[in-house]
UniProtKB/TrEMBL annotation:
NCBIfam families associated with the record: DegV
Pfam families in the cross-refs: DegV
InterPro entries (UniProt xref): DegV, DegV_C, DegV_domain_contain
UniProt superkingdom: Bacteria
Protein name as catalogued: DegV domain-containing protein CPE0026
Keyword Lipid metabolism: no
Organism: Romboutsia ilealis
Length: 279
């Protein structure tokens, strides 16, 4: 049975336990505060959120180089599966594809497949875990690619944003309107899918916003379905645990993953965001 190497990028927000369990190679994106450039993960997440709050402008994210991806493809495995952040949100997918061409030219006996998840963070993470499980079951590369491509449409992914501070800094929302929304304690609810992050609702206060997000996710689960659940938090573990309790009151899950929102998604979501995804 051939072993398959699983590679992804750091936007996946997988926790270390899951990454180590399935031997997933994570290629870091880059985060820049002015002239200071860091590999994603180089800064502790709590410190990252503090640096971002203290900065008058948003940090900038950039995709890894093709050479960095090529290094991640190296190993004893003859087949490599790369699962990336949505191509509409980042150039990471295109870079991984370029690296695939360069790598296969250099190593013609090896095969690389690259999947655009059309999502990110824990939605991407759930697809990666599923791919790793399929590889452990002995499925071949082509079969895994086919299954993951078909499962992309099954990902349900919503989030609650604590503040619009970063949307204001990034010029994505009028500063006056954004500050008014924050002052009124409205939390924006977003839906992530098809390569986009779109506001879909709002609620006043944390409790109401978390309740709405849970309702949106739970309404997608049919009676009797048992799915995998992933929850990510932007430096607010208490909210993530609260969401877990709320979800378990509605459904049982075959697995539950709780992780932190990393620098890539965190740059746009801001501290205090909670994301929920099921597959």
């Amino acid at each position: 049975m051939k072993k398959i190497r699983i590679v992804t990028d750091s936007s996946c927000d997988l926790n270390n336990e899951i990454a180590e369990k399935y031997n997933i190679e994570i290629v870091p994106l880059n985060i820049a505060f002015g002239d200071d450039i860091y590999a994603d993960g180089e800064i502790e997440k709590a410190e990252f959120y503090k640096m971002m709050a203290d900065s008058p402008v948003l940090p900038k994210t950039s995709c890894p180089s093709p050479e960095r991806f090529m290094r991640s493809y190296e190993g004893e495995e003859e087949e490599i599966l790369v699962i990336t952040l949505a191509s509409k949100l980042s150039g990471t997918y295109s870079t991984a594809v370029l690296a695939k061409s360069m790598f296969e030219e250099e190593y013609p006996n090896k095969k690389v497949a690259v999947i655009d998840t059309e999502t990110g963070s824990i939605g991407q993470g759930l697809l990666i875990v599923k791919a790793a499980q399929l590889a452990e079951e002995g499925k071949g590369l082509d079969e895994i690619v086919s299954i993951i491509e078909s499962l992309k449409n099954d990902i349900v992914f919503y989030g609650s944003l604590e503040t619009l501070e970063n949307a204001i800094k990034g010029g994505r929302i009028n500063p006056i309107a954004g500050k008014l929304i924050n002052a009124l304690n409205f939390k924006v609810i977003v839906k992530i899918g098809n390569g986009e992050v779109k506001p879909c609702d709002k609620a006043r206060g944390d409790n109401n916003s978390l309740k709405k997000v849970v309702e949106n996710v739970c309404s997608s689960i049919k009676k009797g379905e048992v799915k995998s659940l992933a929850i990510a938090h932007a430096n607010c573990l208490d909210k993530a645990l609260k969401v877990k309790e709320m979800m378990l009151k509605n459904h049982n899950f075959k697995s539950i993953m709780i992780s932190e929102v990393g620098a890539v998604m965190g740059t746009y979501a801001s501290k205090g965001a909670v994301l929920i995804s099921v597959l």
